[in-house]
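[worker-b] picked up task from shared queue
[worker-b] task type: protein-ligand structure
[worker-b] ligand name resolved to zinc ion; SMILES cross-checked against name lookup, match
[worker-b] sequence length check passed
[worker-b] input payload:
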Amino acid sequence: MIDKDILNIMGCIRCKSKLIDKEDHLECDQCNIGYPIEDDIPRMVEDRIFSLND
Ligand SMILES: [Zn+2]
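[worker-b] inference finished, payload out:
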């Protein structure tokens, strides 16, 4: 679980939208991408982004 204050400060690195906390990763609805969370730290880097294809 990511601290809500941190979540509010962080935005998607592509579109700057707010991210959704999905416990094991963060999601951007606008870009349809996810950011992995490792050791409680979101990996907010381009080469760790994965696409959400539901
Ligand atoms: Zn985005």
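[worker-b] attaching auto-annotations
[worker-b] The helical segments are 4-9.
[worker-b] releasing lock
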